[in-house]
């Protein structure tokens, strides 16, 4: 960076900081915060959140405010014209519904809307259930050997190989084997680009080349001769989407379908391994509905206990643990003055654990999501897929797929704890366990 750029950035940051309400508590220093943010943003924000619901966590040239209170998060999401998304993820996934604003976002949203109709989601789950079942059967070798089983690695591989098909992808076994580590490395790389680093590593080049190759192959593949059209074919047929935009939509679909949902499966299995009473109740429900049969979108909906378990898992360990918005104009938040240019982090992870909303917020209690209790949950106190008009459009499909994988697992296995007693979490764009999610498997008879 040239000296003139350094001082220009510093002056701009100083002007924004002067406009921020001095009553907002500050955590750390801008330089140390940036260093810690690049290393493990979740750990940094967890320390900062101890200071209150609205905390300044400035990072070098970027005045930054962590937002933990559901009411304040609501204020951010209710004014998209004031609080806009940045383009930090563009180097990884291009310009699509996740990285655009205004009319560009609306066009992208309308382009993909038909693919996420409830009927389309149900059809996608029905088509993958047999492949899920066969793959999960293969996990039995870990039960027989008694060795630790990384639920995260195997779940991501499962989704990469099979859940991506309805979008128009066909990953090879080799690509599916490489996918879990490649995606974690790319997320770390892209996050550090956002946090002020720009060095492109050879490993990032190789990982991006693999994802680009998967997308390019899908774009070259003729449409299926039978069965419902894929996500890719609906994009081609229904909207005038140029090739570059098509590539960006497909890159997001590839990553989104094979990253967050399987990690929810892994975190849920880890929690169930430590809560045998809930695991056995869920198994009893699954067997009463499925017996030895296959899972479908219709019978998934007859497993309310399983849905409560998944919701509680996403409350405790939400994959999307924080979001980012930038103030486009001077405004207020929680009665405090916020300057244009301020970056805010509405953080579902901390909203999900507020003691003023949740009794014993750090404990696993699926009955928080009984029908009579759900109505008492404040808006924005539970938002695993975001909230407002920009809530994840694939939320229904994702929860169906998550429950399908868990139901098939519970038909076959019991999860028990591995030696690791705590789950180390690493927070970048999503919340992950850098050392994996270790459990042990026991076969069950029924």
Secondary structure elements and pairings:
Elements: H1 3-18, H2 30-49, E1 54-56, E2 64-67, H3 70-77, E3 83-84, H4 90-93, H5 102-112, H6 118-137, H7 140-145, E4 149-150, H8 151-162, H9 173-194, H10 202-220, H11 231-238, H12 243-257, H13 260-273, H14 276-290, H15 297-300, H16 304-316, E5 325-327, E6 331-333, E7 336-338, E8 343-346, H17 348-351, H18 371-374, H19 395-412, E9 413-417, E10 426-427, E11 431-432, E12 438-443
Parallel strand pairs: 2-8
Antiparallel strand pairs: 1-2, 3-5, 4-12, 5-8, 6-7, 9-12, 10-11
Helix pairs in contact: 6-19, 8-9, 8-13, 9-10, 10-12, 13-16, 13-19, 14-16, 14-19
Please give a quick description of this structure.
This protein has 446 residues and is of the alpha+beta class.
Description:
With 446 residues, this protein is of the alpha+beta class. It has one domain (68-320, 352-443): Cytochrome P450 (Cytochrome p450). It has 19 helices and 12 strands. The chain has helices at residues 3-18, 30-49, 70-77, 90-93, 102-112, 118-137, 140-145, 151-162, 173-194, 202-220, 231-238, 243-257, 260-273, 276-290, 297-300, 304-316, 348-351, 371-374, 395-412, and strands spanning 54-56, 64-67, 83-84, 149-150, 325-327, 331-333, 336-338, 343-346, 413-417, 426-427, 431-432, 438-443. The strands form 4 sheets. It has a 5-stranded mixed β-sheet, with helices on both faces. Strands 4-12-9 form a 3-stranded antiparallel β-sheet. Helix 10 (202-220) packs across helix 12 and helix 13 crosses helix 16. The longest helix has 22 residues, at 173-194. The protein is globular and about 65 Å long.
